[in-house]
Design brief:
By secondary structure, the chain is of the alpha/beta class. The protein contains 11 helices and 12 strands. The strands form 2 sheets. Strands 1, 2, 3, 4, 5, 8, 9, 10, 11 and 12 form a 10-stranded mixed sheet that branches. Strands 6-7 form a two-stranded antiparallel sheet. A hairpin with a 2-residue loop joins strand 6 and strand 7. The model has no long low-confidence stretch (mean pLDDT about 95).
């Protein structure tokens, strides 16, 4: 007994590379990718490899300048700067020092590459002696006392020439506080990219080494979001938009693609997703063991993040991915 032939054949549109390319719904481009970089004090073009993130290093300002030249050649969307200061205290004073490490790095990058998009992470954890993202008193992270320091930090970054400031602290009201500080400082044109839905995640582990930002006591669950919550993320996004955010981020990316998709459905603002350190390191480890094809896995992951609704992606694989995309083209 013969079976009836299929009346619809979706495989027709998968039969050749040219047809697959013609009907492909989602494309990742180098310009969609932002490269996170870690800048440290020091002279010369030295770098300090990060053991838990193979291929990523802490860079001096001179080394950063050389790296920026490569980034420009890859035509990436831009860079995100994290700073590791020379000294830390309980008021994060190095974060808003006009001659701080990030401020020096921004000035150097913009002097060399005026057209390079420079985004700065606005948080205090790297600069606090206790490693938390806000002012601590009696073992508690104080929300409102932290807001003024975040505003000062954002203004100092804008003064140095940052194109975009990106608060990642998850204090309530930080977007409004930063917007007010920027406007009062004459930086009404500086956009805010808010880490609006930033979850407490095990995937940040390698970043703690890279940014020297592990909390000295407790954890960050009182201010970063519970991974179990979806509706709360929508509320956080809506609040940040109401406070003046120009762009929105979801962090991490892979285990939160449902959040990326839902945020895409409630706002037309540009949406980013952060393919974080743990996600990067897992791929690197599996590839090093021969368990996966790194290139294929990375391009699949980036495509999935964009397919979920992200307009641009922060990824430690940015330069490699840009090279692979160029080869594929």
């Amino acid at each position: 007994m013969s079976l009836p032939e299929p009346t619809v054949r979706p495989r027709r549109l998968r039969s050749t590379p040219a047809i697959r390319a013609l009907v492909r719904e989602t494309e990742v481009n180098a310009a969609d990718l932002i490269d996170p970089l870690f800048v440290v004090p020091g002279s010369g073009s030295s770098s300090r490899p990060i053991a838990s993130m193979p291929g990523v290093a802490q860079l001096t300002v001179d080394a950063l300048r050389a790296e920026a030249g490569k980034i420009a050649s890859y035509r990436l969307g831009g860079v995100l700067l994290f700073g590791i200061p020379e000294s830390k205290d309980d008021r994060a004073s190095s974060a808003y020092d006009g001659d701080g490490i990030v401020q020096r790095a921004v000035r150097a990058l913009k002097a060399d590459n005026p057209d390079l998009l420079v985004i700065t992470d606005v948080c205090l954890c790297e600069y606090m002696s206790h490693g938390h993202c806000g002012v601590v008193e009696g073992g508690c992270v104080l929300n409102d006392d932290t807001l003024a320091l975040l505003g000062q930090t954002a203004v100092s970054h804008a003064q140095a020439g940052a194109d975009v400031v990106a608060p990642s602290d998850m204090m309530d009201g930080r977007v409004a506080a930063i917007r007010h500080a920027l406007d009062q400082g004459g930086f009404t044109g500086t956009p805010i990219l808010s880490y609006a839905a930033k979850y407490t995640s095990a995937m940040y582990g390698p970043f703690r080494e890279a940014a020297d930002s592990a909390p000295q006591f407790g954890d960050r669950r009182s201010y970063q979001m519970d991974p179990a919550n979806r509706r709360e993320a929508m509320r956080e996004v809506e609040l940040d938009i109401a406070e003046g955010a120009d762009m929105i981020m979801v962090k991490p990316a892979l285990a939160y693609l449902d959040i990326v998709r839902e945020v895409r459905g409630i706002t037309d603002l540009p949406l980013a997703a952060y393919n974080v350190s743990g996600e990067y390191s897992m791929v690197k480890a599996a590839a090093a063991n021969g368990w996966i094809d790194e290139r294929a896995a990375v391009l699949e992951i980036l495509t999935a993040i964009k397919r979920a609704g992200a307009d641009f992606i922060f990824s430690y694989h940015a330069k490699d991915a840009a090279a692979w995309l160029k080869e594929r083209a």
